[in-house]
Specification:
Number of helices: 3
Number of strands: 4
Order of helices and strands: HEHEEEH
Helix content: 55-70%
Shape: rod-shaped
Number of domains: 2
Radius of gyration: 45 Å
């Protein structure tokens, strides 16, 4: 009987070892799964972060594009529209040469008057309209719809000869 008892004990030990081995294997598998799932979650987080960065970059580029469009539609053309409006207003009281005009703002009439008598009577805010081909200069006050002075454009021959 001793041998049958030994056999039973051996079988019990074998079963216990097998059970312990399975539990260890299950723990190792669980640990491996945890490690793998952590790696997968980490990759998912990185992927989500890169998607957010791409989305934010697209939004920034889109915002810049819209801003540029609005600027060009409303502000860039305003200078041309102002020039056209000024020339249209001036053409109501004077026949203008059929050429492109160059328009300057008069900011310091006292300084200009010191150098040239043509600017006597001009005020800050007046416009100097120059028609270079026709050789005509006009000081115009848009607020009062008034021509302050008209005169010829004289070019310094020494400056032109140097070019």
């Amino acid at each position: 009987m001793k041998s049958s008892e030994k056999m039973i004990e051996v079988e019990k030990e074998t079963k216990e070892k097998t059970t312990r081995g399975r539990k260890k294997d299950q723990k190792e598998i669980t640990n491996d799964v945890d490690v793998n799932s952590t790696k997968v979650e980490s990759k998912k987080k990185k992927h989500m972060v890169s998607k957010k960065i791409i989305f934010q970059s697209i939004l920034i580029i889109l915002g810049i594009a819209i801003g540029m469009f609005v600027y060009h539609q409303f502000f860039a053309n305003s200078a041309e529209k102002d020039q056209e409006k000024l020339l249209s207003s001036l053409s109501e009281i004077m026949i203008l040469p059929q050429e492109e005009a160059t328009i300057f703002d008069i900011d310091d009439p006292e300084l200009l008057t010191k150098d040239q008598d043509f600017f006597v009577g001009s005020m800050k805010g007046d416009k100097l309209v120059v028609f270079p081909v026709a050789g005509k200069a006009i000081i115009y006050r848009p607020e009062d719809h008034l021509i302050v002075n008209v005169g010829p454009v004289l070019f310094d021959e020494k400056v032109n000869a140097g070019n």
